[in-house]
Amino acid sequence: MTATQVQALISDGLPMADEIGFTVERVRPGFARTRVPHSDRNIRPGGTLSGPLQMALADAAMYAAILASLDKAEMAMTSNLSINFLQKPAAADLIGEATVLRMGRRLAVCEVRLLSPTEDGEVLVAHVTGSYALPTKA
Amino acid sequence: MTATQVQALISDGLPMADEIGFTVERVRPGFARTRVPHSDRNIRPGGTLSGPLQMALADAAMYAAILASLDKAEMAMTSNLSINFLQKPAAADLIGEATVLRMGRRLAVCEVRLLSPTEDGEVLVAHVTGSYALPTKA
Amino acid sequence: MTATQVQALISDGLPMADEIGFTVERVRPGFARTRVPHSDRNIRPGGTLSGPLQMALADAAMYAAILASLDKAEMAMTSNLSINFLQKPAAADLIGEATVLRMGRRLAVCEVRLLSPTEDGEVLVAHVTGSYALPTKA
Amino acid sequence: MTATQVQALISDGLPMADEIGFTVERVRPGFARTRVPHSDRNIRPGGTLSGPLQMALADAAMYAAILASLDKAEMAMTSNLSINFLQKPAAADLIGEATVLRMGRRLAVCEVRLLSPTEDGEVLVAHVTGSYALPTKA
Prior knowledge:
Four copies of one chain form a homotetramer. By secondary structure, the first copy, chain A, is of the alpha+beta class.
C-alpha cells in the first residue's frame, strides 16, 4: 500500500485525523512516517502542542504502520498505548515515526518517536509504545 | 478547591477541554470525577468514542485530581500516561474518575478509570495510569 | 480452582516462584491475593525489597488471578507489564493483589496492587497493570 | 566512568545483579550494553528465560546507562518500568542495550532493547521504557 492509500483509509476511519490535518508521508512494511502540520488551532498557551494531540498522532502513526504492513487490517484496534513526554514540542509541525517491533498473529507491537523540527534537525519530544489487536483472519 | 474552581482553571489552560465539553463533577483531595458529555461530534463510525478522546479525558481527569490536592499546581505537566483499552465505550457520556496514588514532592502518580454509563450502571471501558511532574516550590 | 491448586500449578511452571517462597493466599474468579514472605535473602541494602522482586511478584499474581478465572490457562504468557513504584516497601512480607480488569478471548488485562504490611494496615507500595496472551482454544 | 567501574557500583548496590552474573560490556554517556550470561539456573521449562529475569536485566541496564551519564547517581531509583515481551528469548545469553532518551534534572527516561543472540545476529525479544528518579543535588 502507498502512503496515499494509507492516508485515505485513515481519513475515512478517523474523522479526527482529518480535523488535525494528519498526513502520511512515507510508508514501507513495518514503518510509517506521519505528520500533523502546524496550525494555530493546535497551539496551547505557552506556544507548544498539547499532550492529547501528541497521543492522537502517535496512535494514528501506529495504525498507519500496521496498514502498511498487513492486508485488510482496517479493523485493527488499539489495545494499549504508553507515552513518555520528553520535552515540549515547538509550535511547529509534529512528526510521528512508527515502527512495528513485532507483528504477531493477534497483536502488533509498535514504537513511535515523536519529533519536532528545529534548526538543528528533528529532536525527539516523546516516546511511545503501544499494541494493536489485529482482526481475526476470516 | 471546589469542582467549579478546578474546572475554571482547566478551561483556561486547556482550550481543548472546552471544545469537548469537559466538566468536573466532584473533587476531594486525591480524587476527581470528570465527564465528557455525549456529542455527535465525538462519535466515531461504529457508534463509539475514539481512543484519543479517551486519552484526552484521562489526562484532564488526572490534572483535575492534582489541582484538587495541591495548591498552585497549575504548572504540573504530564510526564507519562499508559492506557489499556478494555471495551468500546457506548455512544454516550464518558466519565473519568482519577485517584492520586502517590503525591510526592516532585511527581504525582495517578490512576484513572474511564466509565461508560449503561442500564446496569457504569462499566469500566479503559484503565489508565500516569504521572505528572509537579512544579518546584519557589 | 482453589488457592492451593493455583499455587501448585505456579510452583511447577515457575521455579523462581518457589525460590522466593511465593504463596497464593486466596483466589476467586477474577482475583488472587498472593504473598512473598519476609526473607533475609530478599532484602536490599537500606532494608527494602528490590524492584525486580516486586515485578516478579506482580507477574506471578496476575498469572494466579488468570488461573483462578479460566480453565486450562497454564500456557498464558505475559504480553506486557507496566509498574509504577510508589514508595519503598518495608523489609517485611510483600503482598500482591491482582484483579482481572478484562478477560477477553485472546488477552486478559489485569491490575495488581503491591502492599506492604505496617502497624496501620497494608499500604500501597507499587501499582501494576499488565496483560497476558491467552492460549488459543483447541 | 568505565564499564568496569559501573559494574562494580552495581554489584555493590544490587546483590541480585551478582547472582545472575550481570555484566556491563560497554558504556558511554547516555548508553550501556549489558549482559546476563547463559546459566542453567536461569532457564525455564520450555528452554527460555523468565519474564522476571528479563525485567531485572532491563532495570539494571537502565541504571548502568544512568551511572555512565551522571556523576554521583548511585541513589537514582526506578520510578516506573514498562515492558513489552515480543518473543521468547533463546536459552542463551541475554543482552540489554539501554539508551537515555532524556536526562532531566529530576528524572531520566530510558529505553532498553533486550536482545537474544542467534546464528543470524541479535534479535529483539523485548522492548522496555522506564524512568529513574534522580538524586537531588546537595
